[in-house]
Design goal:
Blueprint lengths: L8 H12 L2 H13 L3 H29 L3 H9 L2 H37 L8 H12 L2 H20 L2 H28 L4 H9 L8 H14 L6 H6 L9 H28 L9 H13 L3 H35 L3 H20 L15 H39 L3 H6 L2 H25 L4
Helix pairs in contact: 1-8, 1-12, 1-14, 2-10, 2-12, 3-4, 3-10, 3-12, 3-16, 3-18, 4-5, 5-7, 5-14, 5-15, 5-16, 6-13, 7-8, 7-14, 7-15, 8-12, 8-14, 9-12, 10-16, 12-13, 13-14, 14-15, 15-16, 16-18
The structure holds phenylalanine.
């Protein structure tokens, strides 16, 4: 069967934006900013985006568009040896790990959306009550497992419908709703009494809170949030034709992703400061602080529903993109039909996600290197496998394939843009060959405790 392609570059762009915008923007970014020096963290994060994650993203999309295969096949095609196809396979497996812990986590969001619809999360009288409710939910194995399964079924449904009718149409519908809901929350936040304090907190850098760990965290976040390093862009790029401009998609993806992270932080902090709550609550920020604030507001019910709907949609468009490399692998390499590949990958993702979904209930005593199962999977993927995948992508493009032929291919689809902005070629050459590999190497060594 002929390989499916995107219906339009815009559709591909929205799918890539949908992949990038997820729990990392709406849940993780605000609390990382809160815990790591406000604007100081944002500045370091923006630098790492420009120096590393964007060049990695472009390299991956280029690998995919050129080879028109899943990550394993694409690495074999361009690298030519079993070492490179093995590396591609590792990237596919990283996608499997990411999609399983991500689904377990996103299941909680779906669970909270149901709680919001029932009215529970807008009727708390204190933060202690909200926190006790959260504890009672996550300590129930059936709640965690049930919503992990329900979330995965929603994603499998989109994926089953195919690249055009499923991913592309799904993102075209879900992304505008997501923008709209976020805008409503930002406007609401800005009109609240603590808006000034929230904004001041976001805009004033606190450099005393910055350590080497902050830098590493910012790097990891910039990677994860763009869905770089685990085959998503290779796979999404493989559904493109050479006439499609990669730069005209990758740069807007990075910009849109950053704007959404910043807007999410504005919404969260203006609302949190207005209620006098602490901005450094970690995950609790969205599971107990915000629900307590929603409970105090008029229209809190609607706000709570909108908020969890926003996070749920963001998670669906990310999860499908984390699963697609595995599906493409099963179709390209193992000759499975798309429907069997979707079913197969959903079953394995579900099974792998079970220990993650039970991490705060019956498996809470079980620890791997001092982390519970969910945090251990998150750590291994985010701090080791994803940087390794990104590292492999820039090495393949910059050194194995060769930066000159690679950039020549990249020019296709947008030759005028390159003529008007010759600095793009210098920037990409320098970052893909030197800056990105060196800095990713650093993150990796830090994660392993070598430095
Ligand atoms: N970028 C997604 C987020 O911000 C997560 C993700 C990572 C999705 C890797 C797919 C692949 O939540």
């Amino acid at each position: 069967m002929a390989r499916e392609t995107w219906r339009s570059t815009l559709g591909f762009g929205l799918a890539a934006i949908g992949s990038a915008i997820g729990l990392a923007n709406v849940v993780k970014f605000p609390y990382m900013v809160g815990n790591n020096g406000g604007a100081a963290f944002i500045i370091i994060y923006l630098l790492s985006l420009a120096a590393i994650s964007v060049p990695v993203l472009i390299s991956e999309a280029l690998i995919g568009r050129t080879a028109r295969l899943n990550p394993c096949g694409a690495f074999r095609h361009l690298g030519g040896t079993s070492f490179w196809s093995g590396t591609g396979l590792m990237i596919v497996l990283t996608g499997l790990i990411v999609s399983s812990f991500y689904s377990a986590l996103a299941g909680w969001i779906l669970g909270y959306l149901i709680e919001a619809l029932k009215g529970t999360v807008s009727t708390f009288t204190s933060i202690e009550e909200a926190s006790a409710h959260y504890q009672s939910l996550i300590s129930s194995p059936w709640w965690g497992l049930g919503f992990h399964l329900a979330f995965l079924l929603c994603c499998a449904f989109v994926l089953y419908s195919g690249v055009r009718r499923g991913i592309e149409v799904g993102c075209e519908i879900m992304m505008p709703i997501l923008f709209l809901v976020l805008l409503i929350l930002v406007i609401k936040g800005l009109s609240m009494p603590g808006a000034r304090d929230g904004l001041r907190f976001l805009l004033k850098p606190d450099w005393s809170a910055v350590t080497s760990t902050t830098v590493i965290l910012a790097l990891g976040q910039s990677f994860f949030t763009l869905s770089a390093g685990q085959g998503t862009m290779i796979t999404y790029g493989s559904y493109l034709s050479e006439q499609d401009s990669l730069l005209k998609v990758c740069i807007p993806v990075a910009l849109a992703d950053t704007v959404i992270s910043l807007l999410a932080a504005v919404a969260v902090f203006t609302i949190v400061f207005s209620s006098g709550a602490e901005p450094t609550q970690g995950m609790g920020l969205i599971f107990h602080t915000l629900p307590t604030v929603f409970s105090e507001l008029t229209g809190g019910y609607v706000l709570a529903v909108l908020f969890f709907l926003l996070v749920f949609l963001a998670a669906v468009t990310s999860e499908i993109s984390a699963m697609e490399p595995v599906i493409a692998y099963l179709v390209d390499e193992k000759g499975l039909s798309r429907s069997s590949a979707v079913a197969g990958s959903a079953v394995v993702t579900f099974l792998l996600g079970i220990p993650c979904a039970l991490s705060y209930s019956i498996l809470s005593e079980f620890s791997v290197f001092g982390h519970n199962f969910l945090d251990a999977m998150d750590f291994v993927a985010t701090s080791i496998l994803i940087p390794l995948g990104g590292f492999a992508a820039v090495l393949l493009v910059g050194w194995k394939w060769g930066i000159h032929p690679a950039l020549e291919k990249l020019r296709m689809g947008a030759p005028k843009l390159w003529e008007r902005h010759p600095w793009i070629a210098y920037y990409l050459r320098f970052s893909i060959c030197y800056v990105a590999p060196a800095l990713i190497g650093l993150v990796f060594l830090h994660a392993l405790g070598v430095i």
